[in-house]
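Moderator note: this is an archived Q&A kept for reference. The question asked for a predicted structure of one protein chain; the sequence and the answer are reproduced below.
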Amino acid sequence: MVSGLSLESVLLEYGASEVSAMEVYSDIFQLGDGFIQTEGEPGGLHKANPIILGSFGGHYDSDGKLVGDRRRRRILFEDTFEETLAEFRDANWAITNGLTYWGRANTADAQSKMCAMIFDLDGQDDGTLTAFLYNCRSDYPIYPEPNYIILSGHNVHLYYVLEEPADLYPNTKSLLKDMKYRLTDRMWNKYTSREWEHPQHQGINQGFRVIGGKTKDGGTVRAFAVNTHPFSLEELNDFLPPEQQVDLSKKWRETRYTLEQAKERFPEWYEKVIVNGERADGSWDAKEDLYNWWLRKIRAGATFSHRYFCLMALAIYAVKCGITDRERVKADMDSLVPFLDSVDTEHPFGNDHEVENALECLDLRYKKFPIKDLERISGIAIPKNKRNYRKQPQHMEYLNGLRKMRRDVLGENEYENSGRPKGSGEKCELIRSYAREHPDANHSDIAKALGVSRSTVIKWLKDVPKGATEPEKPKPDDLYEPYNPAMVELRAALDEYWSSADAENEKREKRERETVKSSGTTGKIPDGSREKFPIDDRLTNGHNEA
């Protein structure tokens, strides 16, 4: 990585000029125009404010980790903006972004307006930054030229100031996030970043190191003015191909059903939400296996630009799995730090309290964080569970049919002859040996010690006769599908039935799409049409690799 001086020379060559933090933030938040609230201003004026978060005090231990620090979160008021900013310049780290919030919380549900869209671009040297600026100013630019470029340690931040701040309605948040993802994909390429294969997809709530504050390596975050033309959302949209452009005019998603149709199709939802006025959560806890699976995925696939987000995703998976033990999740994160350090030995991971920050996502509001967004921010592929394109009830009926076939046609137990997973014999013996050696350990203790699920422990310890050994796997070839005429015949009949059922379902759904129109109800309708409120990365998660 080249020095900041080298990047500075590229910016100056392209006509950029260094500016102060207050010049940038005055431009973004229209300071002096009464856009944001003053400290002594009464409420009820429909004004919101940016928020700043920082870490103060503490010390670095022998492993280079910051310990004993204190967190401060402050509202940035118009009349005390510069004073508060100066206070946070002395912080170990301080972050903010281009959004305003209602109240003191910098969470997604408190967002008010987006005043600037900000991007992270890692892997910079004089060649990549030159290529980025050249592409901005070519006759056929593939992405817009930022208003400000911020030098922040290992990367640059790209600030796009909006000429009209965007109101953050539920659907608008989702659309702006999609726009940011797609523009990110255009900015991160093999010419503009040495990390181009691992682009950072960040939500609109992402925080960035404050201008004038400290970089991760102890330097100063510096700002350079590049382009004086503010952007409309329509202008940003124009840099995307037609098939990727988003319709920013819809503040709320339309539903497929009228309220009367929803009452008929979803009576339980109607009773709960419309009649009783309760929330339609509709969520459930996944098995702990999912959490343990993500731990393995991090060890196998975490990359430099996504190390922090992998831990953030671990906290979110814990929420999805109903794991609320903060100490357990923290211990799992701590165990990952040596590996994350080894991903890039020149830039160790654990210097900035990343574990503590990632733990802030251990919050129930993250339970419905979209899987596709976890995949993009972590840089790790997350395969989808497949049911051969069947609805869950259909698929379960199909599986039950197969089990019935095993019992009625083949005369076998539904799980017999299906074969155990490779290595399950070793796992069984491992669990039983550990239980014999640790008689006081409960199922959870054993599962945690061996890195397996609690259900697996229960499975291999339930009703085990003393001195029992593993039964030999049966190998009756005549019972397997290729050799059993009855199996072949029944399989063919089932396939024919489900093929016909799937075709009918597709026809029905097509007719519904063509004929059913929304009544305009604001009720949150279940099924695939239900409004989703994705929660983006919190502001407190923004200093990962900055």
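Archived answer notes: The first helix runs from residue 4 to 13.
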